[in-house]
Design brief:
The complex is a heterodimer of chains A (114) and B (115). Chain A is built from no helices and 12 strands. Chain A is mainly β. In chain A, strand 10 and strand 11 form a beta hairpin. The relative contact order of chain A is 0.34. Helices cover 0% and strands 56% of the residues of chain B. In chain B, the strands form 2 sheets. In chain B, strands 2, 4, 5, 6, 9, 10 and 11 form a 7-stranded mixed sheet that branches. In chain B, strands 1-3-8-7 form a 4-stranded antiparallel sheet, with no helix packed on it. The chains are: A mainly beta (114), B mainly beta (115). Chains A and B meet through strand 5, strand 6, strand 10 and strand 11 of A and strand 5, strand 9 and strand 10 of B.
Chain lengths: 114, 115
C-alpha cells in the first residue's frame, strides 16, 4: 500500500533563509503528488501539484517542488522564506488507480523566525 | 465561485446533543468528502460521496451520519458524540471522481468541541 514520509516534523528557519521540506512516497506506480499548506486556525490550501509533464512545479508565492521518480521524492523548496510562511505543510499522494483517496504524510511544521 | 464553504465555524455541544455540520460548493464538483483533523495531524478521511451516493465510509462510528441532499450540499449529522470527537471537521470537493486527476478543494473547517 502507498505511504508518504515527511522526514522532518519541525523545521525552524530564519526569515530570508532557504528551506527544503522533504517528502518521499513508497510506490513507483503512476501517482499524483500534492503539497497542501495549513495556516494557523485555517483549512487546507493546495500549494503545488504534480500530475505529469515537467518535473519541476512552481507556486505563485515562490515555492517549488521537484518530482523525482527514481528517488520517489517530491521535496518542497523556497529560496527565501517570510514570516508569513509559518504553517503546517502536508505532502499527499493519490494513486492514479484510486483517486478518491489521498494518502497523507504526517506534516512538517515550518516556523519562520525573525 | 471556487470555494467550499462550511458552517458553523465553531460548534460546542454536549454528549447528548444533536447537531449538524453543513458544507456547500458551487463548482459543479461531483465528489464531496468529510475529513476529521486533530491538531498537528493530517486529515483523516471519513466519508466520500460520488454523484450524491455514499461511495466510501472509512468505518466511522454511527454517531456520525452523512447526508448529501444534492450535488452542491453535504451535511454531517452528529449525535451522542464523545469528548474524543473534538476536532476540526473539514469538507472537500473534487471535480469528477471517476476521471483521472481528482484535485480536492478544502473548506475552512468547523472546529467542534464536545463537552
Amino acid at each position: 500500500a502507498q505511504s508518504v514520509t515527511q522526514l522532518d516534523s519541525q523545521v525552524p528557519v530564519f526569515e530570508e533563509a532557504p528551506v527544503e521540506l522533504r517528502c518521499n512516497y513508497s510506490s513507483s506506480v503512476s501517482v499524483y503528488l500534492f503539497w497542501y499548506v495549513q495556516y494557523p486556525n485555517q483549512g487546507l490550501q493546495l500549494l503545488l501539484k504534480y500530475l505529469s509533464g515537467s518535473t519541476l512545479v512552481k507556486s505563485i508565492n515562490g515555492f517549488e517542488a521537484e518530482f523525482n521518480k527514481s528517488q520517489t521524492s517530491f521535496h518542497l523548496r523556497k529560496p527565501s522564506v517570510h514570516i508569513s510562511d509559518t504553517a503546517e505543510y502536508f505532502c499527499a499522494v493519490s494513486d492514479a488507480g484510486n483517486n478518491r483517496k489521498l494518502i497523507w504524510g504526517l506534516g512538517t511544521s515550518l516556523a519562520v523566525n525573525p | 465561485d471556487t470555494e467550499v464553504t462550511q458552517t458553523p465555524k465553531h460548534l460546542v455541544m454536549g454528549m447528548t446533543n444533536k447537531k449538524s455540520l453543513k458544507c456547500e460548493q458551487h463548482m459543479g464538483h461531483r465528489a464531496m468528502y468529510w475529513y476529521k483533523q486533530k491538531a498537528k495531524k493530517p486529515p483523516e478521511l471519513m466519508f466520500v460521496y460520488s454523484y450524491e451516493k455514499l461511495s466510501i465510509n472509512e468505518s466511522v462510528p454511527s454517531r456520525f451520519s452523512p447526508e448529501c441532499p444534492n450535488s452542491s450540499l453535504l451535511n454531517l449529522h452528529l449525535h451522542a458524540l464523545q469528548p474524543e470527537d473534538s476536532a476540526l471537521y473539514l469538507c472537500a470537493s473534487s471535480q469528477d471522481p471517476t476521471g483521472g486527476f481528482n484535485e480536492q478543494f478544502f473548506g475552512p473547517g468547523t472546529r467542534l468541541t464536545v463537552l
